[in-house]
Design a protein that fits this description.
- The chain is built from 2 helices and 7 strands.
- It has 120 residues and is an alpha+beta fold.
- The protein has a single domain, classed as Pnp Oxidase, Chain A.
- It has a 6-stranded antiparallel beta barrel.
Length: 120
Amino acid sequence: MIQNLHVIQRKIDDIGLGLLRSRENKLPVSVQIRAKCDKDNLINCYASDTGDLLQLKNKRVSLLQKCNDDYLYVTGQAEASAENGRMLPIRIFKASWFVRKRDGSVTWFQEKHVYDRIAG
């Protein structure tokens, strides 16, 4: 399982840009970020606007990234220790890497790597 996390973290670093999402009072909150993996089970998210990240502190969040036919979906908890408001660390709960496959006019997603902290 840890090996899957390291592979997914390398892909997160390669893609870089992503969308950090959460729900607040049933309203969706989305922030465009640059993601950089720091250490095991942690992603540092950087945004140009400090106010956007501050509203996500201590919330459950999802990170979405896309590069060609690769899709990454990560869920985690935003930590309270946001440095100077421009960086928000995310503790990873679950991370999935999917690849879009095609056969003629049929398209589907195939799971490539999965990490689940609870399972493993």
